[in-house]
Write a structure and sequence with these properties.
alpha/beta, Alpha-Beta Plaits
Length: about 425
């Protein structure tokens, strides 16, 4: 038996880490300033004395890359020591552009961990906490990690109870008994208000062919659907009740300036400006251990799109001819034909139009499968085709001969 191997722990009941963390970050700004010189602090140590506006001397760079980790507390005095991360997300906050990109890294992703060799990325936290995890993510993907947030996954149910019922689109029938988590999951498809208990069922369900990848996608859609409620003015009165949860649940090195700027950004950002991505790959058994083997080319393209400043964005790029696919469910044929006609009029090449499973088109979206699609072109398309103006963007894996995939949600009855 390998003594250096971190202990296996049952997967905790994790809910949409980022959007709920945003609520906790908002609670932080009601707290007192951390002690000078402290680089990491318990956010609950901050209550009561911030000015109404951020001090002018506080400077935040135009972009922040934050590592969010959902970790099951070990119950020890050190809280998270020796625990694997159940969720790993890289959140890229573009403060000047007022946009947010959430990149989910599957927890079984096979990466190199310094001092431990090739292993699952969730083991990095068990070996060396947030510092080793940040170094591992940075080395594996060639991106900077500016800040970190570690959240006790077990506390997120309390946050959901505080947030209250949320409107969520359930993509498929979910009927499963999670014996390890002691949870009965029983949800029907469609748009509906979910109670906190049902939200937990939605984000924990993984008993299908997509397994953890499907769970990641549901967490990301939940973030979109919950974002507006958590950031609404009507939620502000609940923030003081979040402070005790924050005290027990979060460790972070976000500065006072970071907190101010992120909170202000959250009030301005639109759902469509939340871009999501998950790292593509395939499952494989190596040495008797199940891994998610990342697709190197697609992973590189995803991070290039997020971080590369040299992406085409000139005024002339709005005339570029894109290779487009349209996916839709049975019953949405007229919508697909109308979109195809509009795209052809704009000079684009609709390579494919096909029906897919209803569960695969519950969310309308613009799926980017090429790093070469410019921001100018996307904005031009949104202005020219009102029907897609509010559709969110998802960065997906590369597909042959396709730059953009438009997914049309089925008609609601």
């Amino acid at each position: 038996m390998n003594k250096n191997r971190p202990p296996l722990r049952p997967a905790p009941h994790l809910v949409a880490v980022v959007v709920l963390a945003n609520a906790l970050i908002a609670a932080m700004v009601f707290a007192q300033v951390p002690k000078p010189g402290s680089s990491s602090h318990n956010v609950g140590s901050t209550l009561a004395t911030l000015p109404a506006q951020p001090p002018a001397l506080l400077v935040v760079p135009p972009r922040l890359t934050i590592l969010f980790l959902g970790v099951d507390s070990t119950g020890r005095r050190t809280r998270f020591a020796g625990a694997r991360s159940d969720t790993t997300m890289v959140v890229t906050v573009e403060l000047a552009a007022k946009s947010l990109t959430i990149t989910s890294i599957p927890r079984d992703s096979r990466v190199y961990i310094k001092g431990h060799g090739l292993s699952k990325i969730n083991a990095a936290h068990a070996y060396g906490g947030h510092r080793l995890t940040a170094a591992t993510v940075s080395d594996a993907f060639g991106i900077p990690i500016d800040r970190y947030v570690v959240i006790d996954s077990a506390s997120l149910r309390k946050i959901c109870e505080l947030v209250g019922p949320l409107e969520v689109v359930v993509e498929k029938r979910m009927n499963y008994i999670d014996r390890a988590g002691r949870l009965r999951i029983n949800l029907v498809p469609g748009r509906q208000l979910l109670s906190p208990a049902q939200v937990e069922q939605y984000v924990r369900f993984r008993n299908d062919a997509d397994s953890d990848i499907g769970r990641i996608q549901r967490q990301q859609w939940f973030i979109r659907q919950a974002f507006s409620k958590v950031c609404s003015p009507s939620f502000l009165w609940k923030l003081p009740r979040l402070i005790p949860i924050a005290r027990e649940s979060i460790r972070t090195d976000l500065s006072l300036a970071d907190m101010f700027r992120i909170t202000l950004l959250a009030q301005e950002i639109k759902q469509r400006e939340i871009v999501t991505a998950s790292l593509p790959g395939h499952p494989a058994s190596i040495g008797g251990i199940s891994y998610w083997v990342l697709d190197a080319a697609s992973t590189k393209a995803i991070f290039k799109r997020i971080y590369a400043s040299e992406l085409p964005d000139s005024a002339s790029s709005c005339a570029e001819r894109l290779r487009i696919a349209i996916e839709y469910a049975a019953g949405s044929e007229q919508d697909a034909l109308g979109l195809e006609h509009s795209l052809i009029q704009l000079g684009h090449d609709v390579k494919l139009k096909q029906t897919v499973r209803k569960g695969d088109c519950m969310h309308e979206q613009i799926l980017l499968s090429s790093v070469l699609v410019s921001r100018t072109t996307l904005n031009h398309m949104r202005r020219a085709i009102p029907a897609i103006a509010s559709w969110p963007e998802v960065i997906g894996s590369q597909r042959p001969n396709t730059d953009v995939i438009f997914v049309i949600s089925r008609r609601r009855t």
